[in-house]
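The data are passed on as follows:
___
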Amino acid sequence: MANKLVQENKTHKSLKLRIYPTEEQTILINKTFGCCRLVYNERLQERNEFYIENILPIPKENKTERNKKYKEYKPSDLKTQFPFLSEVSSQALCQSENDLKNAYNNFFKSNNKTRKGKSGFPKFKSKKNNRQSYRECMVSETALNFFSKYVKIPKLGKVAFSHDSLPKWYFKEAKLCNITVEKSCANRYYAVLLFEIEKPNYKIENRKEAIGLDFSPSEMYVSSENQTGKDFGYVAQKQVHSKKLRKLQRRLARKQFLKDPNSPRKLPSKNREKARIKLARLEEHIADSRKDWIEKETLRLVQNYDKVVVEDLNLKGISKFLRNAKNMNDTSWATFVARLEQKGQDYDCKVIKTDRYFPSSQLCSKCGFQYKDLKLSEREWTCSCCGTHHIRDVNAAINLKNYVPLERRKLTPVDSEKISDLAELALQAGTLEEAGTKQQATAWKKMPRL
């Protein structure tokens, strides 16, 4: 029990540093990428061949025989086949094999429905992936020297890095667990340090009670306080950099491939590689700018509000039928909501997702009347029941603010005489703002049941 309590009080935080390796260190890093990829692919190929040759001939009913065959599987010694594997870190190679085992375990667990989410069958790793990485687990706790600006990585030694300041949680007895070395598509190298720390719990006073955030493709969100993401510095990054993006994409499309008689595929020329790196750096800058705003805005929200209610949207499905799909994907709404949930745990802020089919835009925030014939092109509408004029997004955000989760609601049909009783039951679960008004209870009655 004591170990479980210790684990519950612990959490993991990562610190990403951009490193500047020397030429020798760069060569060794690239060698390690290739060797880890080779070990992963070879082990995957071995297991696939063993399954086809030994397991498939046995019928599925004979589980005992299949288990015996699985126990007979012995991996080959790759270092005798490929002597150059001894030049790189052995811990990185072991971790690559462990990654394959975890991929198989996740695949089997998802098939047995003992794991949330879907995990497909393990795939072979490619040299052309945008992200190349390997992990070092056996690292010293003093590997990071922030004052001398270097991080000590096994086999590489001291590698210089650049970073402005350490985060607040670093000073709370952070224990270094592992280091992941990454290479982006823009040929930039990073070291991601994973620390184990005690769960932070920041206590902030004088916060507002709740806020609702309605998704907006052009402004990120519209809040129940009639504010948008642009009021706090949101910029649609791809629209701002669209001219430069088009220019670099056209330059890349004009560059040539080289025809090598000894190779069946075309090889990129040096000028094409230069153009590709320029385009990759701009796209990385766009992603970093978007991520920076998301980090700052989510922190502001959890610090200023006790409860944040957001929409649960399937933007991938919605964007197939709309013209502004580019703007929707540029917002990174899923990342925004995920960061809200993670930071909400640290700052004791409730982050609630609404039901997928909650009609926030159709409900009147004053009387609870549902306007079922509301079209997407109607940005303003007037309630036929109470005569209130609504701005569509602001009204939806107010309804989100007053939203009550399904587990606190009664899903059985409710008569009009029992509406007041329903409101009283809802008030027992929380405050008036959490439960909604009596008029909101009528909207729950009219809402289609899930």
